[in-house]
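Problem 12. The chain below contains 139 residues. Write out its predicted structure in token notation.
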Amino acid sequence: MNSNHILWPVLAQIFLTLIMFITLGVRKAKAVKASAVNRQQAALNNRVWPEDVVKVSNNIANQFEAPVLFYVLCLVLYSINAADMVAIGLAWLFALSRFAHAYVHIGSNYVPMRLRLFLLGCFVLIAMLILAAWKLAAV
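Solution.
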């Protein structure tokens, strides 16, 4: 298996983040057009936006939390030539868990499901960390 393949789930995660930015822009434009927000207040206070905008904004903040660890782990695995089938599978599992998390977060925002998806991603990151440490120790 080509170790470059670990970069595909990284690109997928970046794509998700960009999609959230676009979604945020669309939802904000819709809120402004519907006069659902005071633009002057919104410039200084994100809490004045409607709930559907806040959900996306909060999700974007989430994209710069655990995914940062994912990016680093993928680069570590790649740089030590440990991006094998297991690492790539874990990377895809993490990225897919983030897509599912984002879907729930900006949709129903059902917290118990969001928590399960978040924890799945965290457990995948722990597995990736253990794999990277194991492979690094074997070098």
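Discussion. Helices lie at 7-33, 39-42, 51-62, 66-79, 85-106, 111-138. Students who got a different answer should revisit the alignment rule from Section 12.3.
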